[in-house]
Request: fold
Amino acid sequence: MIYSDMSRDIRALLDSHGVPDKEVYLDSENSGMIFPEALEAMRAAYLESGQGHPAITNRKGWEAYETLYTSTLALAEAMHCKPDEIAYTHSGTEANNLAINGLAMTAPEGRKKIVISAIEHLSVVFPAEELKNRGFSVVKVPVDREGFVDQEALAREVDKETLLVSVAPVNHEIGTVQDTRAIIEIIRDRDPGVKVHLDACDAFCKVPLDLGASGADMASFSGHKIYGPKGSGALYVREGIELKPVLQGQLSTQKLWPGVENVPAIVGFSTAATLMQAHAGEYLGRMSRLRDGLIDGILGTVDDTLLNGPSGKKRSPDNANISVLYCEGEALTIELSLKGVYVSSGSACSSRILEPSHVLLAIHRKYEEAHGSILMKTTPFHTDEQIAYVRSCIPEAVNRIRSLSPFGRGG
Reply:
């Protein structure tokens, strides 16, 4: 499809859809809302303090450098690390690629084994698998039915040939909160020379995360996952860890990522982190309460539904992932969209190629159970009234899709 046709088709689709009277956005896994304070701070940076190039020797450049430095101090405080240990990227995906490929470029002879869990984000899975073309081996450690890493299997796989273990403290899709401390202790016990990377995009500001005390060597972050701007990300690289840049070009202030820094986006990222830290009790308490209300409401009113992932404190405070049997997830997202309820089906990366989520298959969901999943995430912006509206819409939407589906109970 050429872009001119695509534009015409999308406009026709939007015109046909219309704007519902009520709208509730629950798709912050893929893209989402931003704190007004972060947006205002970015606006000021675009117009004033972040206009210049932070590596250029003129007044605007020095202003941008000062703004970048101030934002980095705030992020370092939130991450519990040193400012010099933060390398900026433009997304969590870029940070994950930099961690895996940048470390692989320094791999000594005899250490060409990458260990990841079976439920990692595709921005971890794909670069790891690509390294097979360069002589690396990749091992995926299984998880249980709630998504917890099999620690005995992990211990068996980590050996003297292992270069890196990469595990997400919080799974992006089913919200499983791993025992990161136990995982790192296992790795260190097996071989202190193995490097540890945490894809912390979904953990940052949602669960306790002290990089300095964790023993991790690298950790990835994404601004939009904490209600900052899209296009902002970072990789924590512990002091003394050697990485090589994976992109080549003129360096600015960042030695691992060439090109000019997006200073306004970094300002928004740091502002969002500061807000989440300052209001953690209020925000996380509300998100957990709304999450549980959403999950309990759906499981209690819609037959043949399954919660994917654990419950309570072992689950991320924002995550609600439910499989609706006898229903296609993609059809359900559209039906709900017509009611102004915006959710995603499985993981966004999987839904674009219409294959069942590898995360749901890894926790032993059947194909039809994985295909019928919807993912929703609560935020500090949501209200009880909005979640009640979502709960009222879902039974009707499910009944309609089931009545039309060839996979329905009578199909």
Remarks:
- The chain has 15 helices and twelve strands.
- The longest helix spans residues 280-301.
